[in-house]
């Protein structure tokens, strides 16, 4: 949990969207490192992580591929060229996260995470469902009333 | 179980979305003033349990309760699971909008199968052991069906052998299956006694 807050605290406002996965990334001088966790903070171990130069017009460059260790960490040698790169983590079971960053080799820390708290998202979801329930109930009652009136 | 965007290929996504649209059509026809409150309640339950992750096994899993939803709601499982998954994608970034059809299909189809196949057993008075067994069976059909469908979708996209996908999924879902079987059995055991007519909606 502490790590999630750490990522949150250190992340720049430039956040990509995660699909139930959080990926942190440090673009260092010698290496691109980071870790991948599930939404609840559990590390994603043994997942494939690919580093690839973002395609620009022509064919995309061959990605460098590695696997996360038991704590969800991964590392790549720093890309030789500056430019836009993407890091894609995939656990092979349908969870996937992708982060695009510009390689500059300057120790910036990027991360993807959802900044809204879980409570507020749960409440929003229940609110939407209650609204949907209300609209459907209103529609069904109107339909039944129309039927009675026309019959 | 949420398959993220960009994992499945387009033909698989389209085929799954087509099947989901079919299921949604049947389900929405069964939405009446009588079935609506139960449907809304279980949409909320499914939305909540799907976002609470339990860190066990090889990954991070969550309750699905699709067997219970199938028993209680029949074909209504499709619209109920569809809206709940859409909200999970919107608010929690679980799954995704392009894979919404696939995720709805792999969760709701086993639910409908569990509901339609097990409901005849619940007609008339049922003893408590029978209710518990039917509940556990519904959870089993729900989880096993979702597991097989997810494995088949990933396999049809290519890259991994079906057998290894199935064994990976079974390893990941085995602990949740146990919890789900207990929760579903207890709920069915309680509801079957208190309201035996609960298992008649959406057929």
What would you say this structure looks like, in words?
The complex is a heterodimer of chains A (151) and B (203). With 151 residues, chain A is α+β, with helices and mostly antiparallel strands. Chain A is 28% helix and 34% strand. Chain A contains two helices and eight strands. Chain A has helices at residues 2-10, 118-150, and strands at residues 21-27, 31-38, 48-53, 64-67, 73-77, 83-90, 96-103, 108-112. The model of chain A is unreliable at 5-19 (pLDDT under 50). Chain B is an all-alpha fold. In chain B, 69% of the residues lie in helices and 0% in strands. In chain B, α1 (10-29) crosses α4 (77-92) and α5 (100-118) runs antiparallel to α6 (128-157). The longest helix of chain B has 33 residues, at 162-194.
Strand content of chain A: 25-35%
- Compute the number of strand runs of chain B: 0
Percent of residues in helices of chain B? 55-70%
Helix count of chain A? 2
Order of helices and strands of chain B: HHHHHHH
Q: Low-confidence spans of chain A: pLDDT under 50, at least 5 residues?
A: 5-19
Spatially, the strands of the biggest sheet of chain A line up as: 5-2-1-8
Percent strand of chain B: under 5%
Largest sheet of chain A: 4 strands, antiparallel
Average pLDDT figure of chain B: 89
Structural class of chain B: mainly alpha
What Rg of chain B, in angstroms, do the CA atoms define?
A: 16 Å
Count of extended strands of chain A: 8
Structural class of chain A: alpha+beta
- Low-pLDDT windows of residues of chain B: none
Shape of chain B: globular
List keywords for this structure.
heterodimer; A: 151 residues; alpha+beta; four-stranded antiparallel β-sheet; 8 strands; B: 203 residues; mainly alpha; 69% helix; globular
Summarize the structure.
The complex is a heterodimer of chains A (151) and B (203). Chain A has 151 residues and is of the alpha+beta class. Helix content of chain A is 28%, strand content 34%.
